[in-house]
Amino acid sequence: MVNNCAAACGAINHQLILHQLFRSSLSLLIIPSVGITSALKRRFNERIKSMKRSISNKSIVTIAIVYAIGGLNVPARAAAAADKTPWKITGELEEACSCRAACPCWFKSLPSRMTCDGAQIVFINKGHYGKTPLEGLAVAQFVQSPEHQSMFESFGKWNFDYVYIDEKATDAQREALKDIATHLFPPPAKVREYRYVSITRQIQGDEHISTIGKYGFCSGHLVEGGYNGAPKVTNPPLADPTHKEFLQGEATKFSYADAGQDWKYEKSNYMRNKFTVDNKQYAKHEAAMAKKMSEIKSEK
């Protein structure tokens, strides 16, 4: 819980919130003046002034963490306010994994192989994070689930979680993409690593070819359905706003060389989708998922 609170504190506007916490924390030190001599009051006030001069931002953050643990919710409210930065993106999802098509993980089933080695690559056609424009940028994630466990039951214990952010993004855009990535790609492992690389895509007929720096490569195409067009998967059990529906395909080649991995898959699972999502959709989705997880825990 302390780690969660520290992360929340780090996400807020430090100068304003820390100043407010500083004033609030000092107010707790004020004691009634009844029965206190003038000399004691003077010494007490001098000590308060000394504390104001010497207390550091780190100390104030510690106070904020203690407040959250104690249930005062001061930093929690501030973090919630920071989390309300409005964002919206219209883009295209390219996704591949080691499973045989269609990936059973989206249906709470075990992966086709011992693990699900997967990637999601999002190309943003239009979008913003607050006033920060995001057009033409991309963000990707590569992950691996534990052996012989479904994606759902093992979430939070995955082998690794690497997020790749478009190297041409400005500092403000990088921070925006990192925050949006926490919603598009909920952290499935204990640690998340970030890299800033070139993320590109070429479209050659029905073949979509995505390259993620020197680390990842995905070339995939849609398969033909029994009727006209490609198969469409709608509302799988683990659907999120970018996976409410997607077109099913096959990866011609899917490779990855980072995080100690050396994937080289052919004819594995591939999906793609066009979408428009925003912070409100994800807030609603995340609240619903939190409720489901709470119900599952209470049943155990």
Could you explain the architecture of this structure?
The chain is built from 7 helices and 13 strands. Strands 1, 2, 3, 4, 5, 6, 7, 8, 9, 10, 11, 12 and 13 form a 13-stranded mixed sheet that branches. Helix 6 (171-184) links the parallel strand 5 and strand 6. The protein folds into 2 domains: 2-82, no CATH class; 87-299. The protein has helices spanning 2-10, 14-27, 38-54, 57-70, 74-82, 171-184, 279-299, and strands at residues 87-97, 117-129, 132-133, 138-144, 160-166, 193-197, 199-204, 207-212, 216-222, 232-234, 245-256, 263-265, 268-278. With 300 residues, it is α+β, with helices and mostly antiparallel strands.
Salient structural properties:
300 residues, alpha+beta, 13-stranded mixed β-sheet, 13 strands, disordered N terminus
Write the layout of secondary structure elements.
Blueprint: H1 2-10, H2 14-27, H3 38-54, H4 57-70, H5 74-82, E1 87-97, E2 117-129, E3 132-133, E4 138-144, E5 160-166, H6 171-184, E6 193-197, E7 199-204, E8 207-212, E9 216-222, E10 232-234, E11 245-256, E12 263-265, E13 268-278, H7 279-299
Parallel strand pairs: 5-6
Antiparallel strand pairs: 1-2, 1-13, 2-3, 2-4, 4-5, 7-8, 8-9, 9-11, 10-11, 11-12, 11-13
Helix pairs in contact: 1-4, 1-5, 2-4
